[in-house]
Design brief:
The complex is a heterodimer of chains A (about 190) and B (about 110). Chain A is mainly α. Chain A has 2 domains: about 55 residues, no CATH class; about 90 residues. Chain A is built from 6 helices and no strands. In chain A, helix 1 packs antiparallel against helix 2. Chain A is elongated, with a radius of gyration of 35 Å. Chain B has a 3-stranded antiparallel β-sheet. Helices cover about 60% and strands about 15% of the residues of chain B. Chain B has one domain: Winged helix-like DNA-binding domain superfamily/Winged helix DNA-binding domain (Arc Repressor Mutant, subunit A, Orthogonal Bundle). In chain B, helix 1 crosses helix 3. The radius of gyration of chain B is 17 Å and the shape is elongated. Classes of the chains: A mainly alpha (about 190), B alpha+beta (about 110). The interface between A and B is medium-sized, with 19 and 18 residues.
Chain lengths: ~190, ~110
């Protein structure tokens, strides 16, 4: 058997696999035959060394799945049960959306508090200085003190905000991965 | 031989064939020939599996006007060989226990 005949026969045998997979395997066998010929074997000997096509295993590789067509009964059942499964599907989607919204609303409110505290700190400092300059020293000092307290609190909250944002981002990613996994498992089954 | 065990052994054999220098398919089979007969299709499957597991990398090189794939071991591949050597000590002691008659030795 010549190399060309062998590769053609192998191509036929692998016909159930994706085209890129077939191409990769054919390249591999082509290289093996060429290397055999480089070592001094004749073309027939190099092909014979690989063995007969029937012995060429195709493990770890599943043929492309044929697209499953729904039977008319299945379509009818889907249509009849639509009120049930559509509402369940919508409920699930809205649950996921509300979960995401509630998680991120906490983060948004934390950051809003952080910004408000910074604003209060800045306002306290500016207002305090203005009051001191106009002669109302006790009120000015008190306002600046309040501003410093706000600045301290905002610094403290900044770490919390960062950690909470990171944690929530990770959690939402995990949830999304979990949902995707559920669907991919169903596809594999 | 148990399929899983054989698969694991062959993986390590192929990794050992490229442990010290990168190699190509034909040479890997040739180097392993004195120890184990490996078919081309089995080698292809092993190479793909090891590549997926990041235990080796592949590069294509032009050789005498055609392309040839070279396989190079990675750190993960070298680690697998080291693990195998450790595991093998355990397997060897189990083998010795089994071949010596297992628990019957105590009765004697």
């Amino acid at each position: 058997m010549t190399k060309h005949e062998f590769l053609a026969a192998l191509h036929n045998k692998l016909s159930g696999l994706p085209e890129n997979e077939i191409e990769e395997r054919l390249t591999f066998y082509n290289e093996m035959i060429d290397d055999g010929m480089d070592e001094g074997l004749s073309e027939e000997e190099a092909v014979a060394r690989i063995g007969v096509i029937e012995d060429t295993e195709i493990p770890d590789c599943k043929p492309e799945k044929a697209k499953q067509k729904l039977s008319p009964w299945a379509i009818l059942l889907l249509v009849l049960c639509a009120p049930l499964w559509v509402s369940l599907l919508l409920t699930s989607i809205s649950m996921v959306i509300s979960l995401y919204a509630s998680l991120w609303s906490v983060i948004i409110s934390l950051w809003a508090t952080e910004i408000a505290l910074w604003g209060a700190a800045l306002g306290g400092a500016v207002g305090g200085i203005a009051l001191v300059c106009t002669g109302n020293t006790p009120a000015g000092v008190a306002l600046m003190g309040a501003g410093f307290i706000c600045a301290g609190l905002s610094l403290f909250l900044l770490y919390g905000c960062k950690a909470a944002t990171k944690g929530t981002a990770l959690l939402t990613k995990k949830i999304a991965q979990g949902i995707r996994k559920c669907f991919s498992k169903k596809e594999d089954a | 031989m148990d399929i899983q065990l054989k698969r694991g052994l062959l993986d390590v054999c192929v990794l050992a064939a490229i442990e010290h220098s990168e190699s190509y398919g034909y040479k890997i089979i040739k180097d392993m020939k004195p120890y184990i007969d490996l078919s081309e299709s089995t080698l292809y499957t092993i190479l793909k599996r090891l590549e997926s597991a990041s235990m080796l990398t592949v590069r294509t090189v032009e050789h005498q006007g055609r392309l040839r794939k070279y396989y190079r071991i990675t750190t993960a591949g070298q680690q697998r060989i080291a693990e195998f050597k450790e595991e093998w000590k355990e397997i060897l002691s189990i083998y010795q226990f089994v071949t010596k008659g297992g628990g019957n030795n105590d009765k004697a």
